[in-house]
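Two proteins follow. First one:
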Amino acid sequence: MSAFAFSFGGDDIEETADDLSNLSLSPPPPAETGTLTPRRASSAFPVANQPLLPATTHSLSSLLTGLPSKIAYNTLPITVDGAPTIALPRRELWDVRVQLMAEDEEVGLGSADVKTGIYEGGFKSWESSVDLVRELAGEGLKGRRRFLELGCGTALPSLAILQRHLEKDGEKGKLELGFADYNPSVLRLVTVPNILLTWAALRPTSDDAEPFEEEGELDIDEDLISEFTAALTAQGVTLSFFSGAWGTEFATLVEAAPRDTSAELLVLAAETIYSPAALESFAEVLMRILGTEKGGGAMVGAKKVYFGVGGSMEDFVVRVEGLGGLVERIREEEEGVRREVVMVRTKEETKA
């Protein structure tokens, strides 16, 4: 089992996205030795030297059952050139730690940001996910209404899309959001709570009710959950969730899920190519998914080079082109850690 640190030191990104450019990469620590203490049978994390987690679908209701009676949150402000600041509420990392410790699930929140085959970094927010939020805000959604975020974690890009949909006045139309993360615990403890917070921040309340603050705690009970799920249905929002390792089984599961095939799919992904192995499996599953779609594409954000780990945007571009894809560079961040956002399409799509 190998462990990588991307210099986040076990903490989440700062509460202002403007400070992200000051972060720098650090070499990975030595590979861990020894073995993990076996977890209880219901553990969401695999044990070292055991097979990777299988591809699995999850219902929203099953993920909501794991929520505590309250969750602590803060709000991440993201500035966008020429546009109002986007404010995304997200669950506090320390609050996730508390729940994990209560459930005897401590893997994933140590000094390493990624433990291959154990934990893929989903509890924390990453720089490139903020780049995707900015790119989506800058170019507009262009009428898109189907999205799938691979390696979603805290799901900042999808949260921004959901927020924009919920803020619309009048006829909203339909919105399909898919969320995929290697660890089902990430979906349960971070992704779904953040979706709930995004809705709660815009929830109509009576004049005497407490307003939604930028930082605080959200009380959760059956009435709130019922109101949340009813609101999603009323506003045309459909959510789907997937976990497990990328591969043929994962792609088949995604392809078999109910979907509106009349709408083009936009896949979103950030920081999914940090190592050669991750890059290879991600590129293959991405092109497999895009190959089954009529139209659509993928917006992928990543660091140009993952020093000491082996992944790079250039290697990703070469691999995608080798699999029959076309890549367009659409955003570049030069300050701090150099990053890019690219758009991936199939050759068949560009001919259409």
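Second one, unrelated to the first:
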Amino acid sequence: MEAVRVLFGLSAPLVVCWERRWFTARPGLTILLTLAYGAYAIAPYIDDVRSWSALASAVLLAVGCILLYRSSSTPALGFSITSPLPTGLSVGKRLGAVAVLLAVSVGTWTAWSTASVFFDQLLRNDTLAVMLSALLIAVFGGGAFVKAATDPVVEEVDRLPSGPNKETALALIRSGGRAIGLFERGLLFIFLAAGQPEAAALVLAAKALARAPVDHVNQASKYFLTGTLASVIAAWIMSVAARAAVGLPIL
């Protein structure tokens, strides 16, 4: 919990500043927020030198991002930096790159002992290995299953007489997107393997709403329905197999 609190606590102000574009608009506030919120994050662990080095790496990263994103319209930090590097437009970016690299180095040194234990536990975790392997099989192996299930529908569309209906159906089928299918099966497997079929149902509902405009095209609707059912079957089979393999109740 200590490592997670520090990691999330130091990441949060950086993410906020990045989303609000404060690296360029409010550099002083960026550093102040990183320091203040970072101090709050490490407060219970101030006796540990690693907490302070983690805070230092976050501040260095904030300074580096400010310098990297700095433009002529960026407000001054309130202090100047004298550098032996040649003067010019690239000096700030060079200093920013150095600050980022230094922040990464300090952060890596700080987190190494905790991270090494964490990754060692991950490598030895049989449940994680089974679930990850089952996820890959469901996502990519399920793709072959979906293709086999939908090929007859595509052939049926190809046999249609030339005309607007055929062209519309083919255009909609081609717009389906392989990446969407991979993402869909991945989400379905994750939710089903986690024992949350309700969340999986929400994924299907969202896809149904997205595909609602094609309901009037019979062949396209048949294609998407067949593909969705095949994805559900692939994700369900692998989630059941994975849960059974690790000793969890089968849905």
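SUMMARY FIELD: DSSP finds ten helices and no strands in the chain. Residues 57 and 106 are 6 Å apart (CA to CA).
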